[in-house]
Amino acid sequence: xxxxxxxxxxxxxxxxxxxxxxxxxxxxxxxxxxxxxxxxxxxxxxxxxxxxxxxxxxxxxxxxxxxxxxxxxxxxxxxxxxxxxxxxxxxxxxxxxxxxxxxxxxxxxxxxxxxxxxxxxxxxxxxxxxxxxxxxxxxxxxxxxxxxxxxxxxxxxxxxxxxxxxxxxxxxxxxxxxxxxxxxxxxxxxxxxxxxxxxxxxxxxxxxxxxxxxxxxxxxxxxxxxxxxxxxxxxxxxxxxxxxxxxxxxxxxxxxxxxxxxxxxxxxxxxxxxxxxxxxxxxxxxxxxxxxxxxxxxxxxxxxxxxxxxxxxxxxxxxxxxxxxxxxxxxxxxxxxxxxxxx
Amino acid sequence: xxxxxxxxxxxxxxxxxxxxxxxxxxxxxxxxxxxxxxxxxxxxxxxxxxxxxxxxxxxxxxxxxxxxxxxxxxxxxxxxxxxxxxxxxxxxxxxxxxxxxxxxxxxxxxxxxxxxxxxxxxxxxxxxxxxxxxxxxxxxxxxxxxxxxxxxxxxxxxxxxxxxxxxxxxxxxxxxxxxxxxxxxxxxxxxxxxxxxxxxxxxxxxxxxxxxxxxxxxxxxxxxxxxxxxxxxxxxxxxxxxxxxxxxxxxxxxxxxxxxxxxxxxxxxxxxxxxxxxxxxxxxxxxxxxxxxxxxxxxxxxxxxxxxxxxxxxxxxxxxxxxxxxxxxxxxxxxxxxxxxx
Lengths: 343, 342
Fold this sequence. Notes:
The complex is a heterodimer of chains A (343) and B (342). Chain A has 343 residues and is an alpha/beta fold. Chain A folds into two domains: 1-100 and 183-270 and 277-343, P-loop containing nucleotide triphosphate hydrolases (Rossmann fold, 3-Layer(aba) Sandwich); 108-181, no CATH class. Chain A is 29% helix and 22% strand. In chain A, the strands form two sheets. In chain A, strands 6-7-8-3-9-10-12-11 form an eight-stranded mixed sheet, with helices on both faces. In chain A, strand 7, helix 7 (196-213) and strand 8 form a beta-alpha-beta unit. In chain A, helix 3 (118-129) runs parallel beside helix 6 (166-178). Chain A is globular. Chain B has 342 residues and is an alpha/beta fold. Chain B has two domains: 9-108 and 188-340, P-loop containing nucleotide triphosphate hydrolases (Rossmann fold, 3-Layer(aba) Sandwich); 118-187, no CATH class. Chain B has eleven helices and twelve strands. In chain B, helix 4 crosses helix 5 (142-155), helix 4 (126-136) runs parallel beside helix 6 (172-184) and helix 6 (172-184) packs parallel to helix 7 (202-219). The longest helix of chain B is centred in the middle third of the chain and has 18 residues, at 202-219. The chains are: A alpha/beta (343), B alpha/beta (342).
């Protein structure tokens, strides 16, 4: 299948987020949800952003498209093809959203309008971004629905969102997102609400379409299995920061941040010994207002020592286009994270 | 945990050995229309389900949305009355027992839901949340109930000092611990966990799964563990039942069932979870097509036949019955019967 053939990537990244800080106002004053996040997505590349709730992964994705509800970018830049999106007016932003960057969400019901038929919504999206007669747009909508695997696409044009299953609604969202052949698709937990057999179908569809449309993807997920299956590179978030990034296969096989390693160990897999307790991570993610000093993970880290409670780790570059925010890497040498892996 | 290998076949064990024995359980919900609420059809949410749980055993119930697994949970606890079939709990038939006679049995069975905070009254303290079942059952009140609530909190890894706080002041994982403490207050023999860890973050999910394991060992609890995550179910369960559109299509010991699934639906579920981030194993592709049809209009014959890659004539008209598919295993598939001649 073409999806598995590696495609050449251009040198300059399509999307570049630099030192992003996002604040939300609360009754007790502003709270920082994202602290100094940087990431890049190259043309046709799939980058997964993985983390638990409160890690800042979704906030980062929304900030790229300036879709933050109640939050604001307090520092940093979002460069799209060299243009800083944080300085653009609404009209210029609207031209980029949909035309160049499209987004799909976990729950399609929040972005589909319940009052309009599926066909109407796809036709609208098509005509908003390209000159097309209603009739041509309708024909194109049928093609798109067929392409995303919607059974009986012509009849489905007249269906309303509530008449569709969750998987079908996500297919409609993907059809709308692809209507204008965007160069980047941001997918926020696109399969989390779906049944596993449907999740497999949707991930496969996204993979195929990406190859076909030469679209890059920024995939936000909490599921390391989804990362393993889809991503070229992975960026691991913890408590509003990037704690590790690198080629997905390398990071998953040989994590360099203790949090990444612990996250992988905590999920029961097919081979997990049922006689042994799971390797749980103690405690919970600290709330933004009560971040511990030093490394934000040190209170839960099995490998923490004195310095971790005192010194704030940087994202230290490692060999193999990787980096980890852990003091063990301060000298720049990779130290394997001690886990029960392979035992 | 009890050893699955030592468990007898799902058919043939003496009935008095089981804590729970469900036989041919059926629940149909009427579909009504108009102001007269005329019945125009039925949703066959549970369509002839049989399984057993021994004392101290964990039986996993997996299935996707519309499979009827949560309806089974509510029937077992008699939060719903079945349309037909039998539910024997601790040796008593409870399928149609009137509410009054159910009261003493209710002590012995509890449930933990997916989202505990929404099931708590926000004005109740943790202490009242936990002692409510004790007082409702007339087991204990006042200081005695409070002392018990403190013990239960310590048991689930919280502190008796948390008794006067409110549930919304706790994280999701801690709130689930409070829900477990409440469920254990009446000293049940059976705990139904309905997607109890599904909404939790990975790191917290592992903590709660470990807690459930420890409680089972300490209190000799039996679990009916309902979830859609096959790996989680395999990890906690001695035996697993796989549901599809209201029926159990396959059941057997957890490890064998997932390592070597016999029913085509179980095979596709197992293939869908095959991706293992640590070993780099990718999911097998294109194993199953389509989506689960509506339980109000299930396909005839085998419910799975429209999506099954192996379906043949008989599958479209004849409902497959459970046939032996290895030690302690059954599968409801015409092909399993054919191929193995069992």
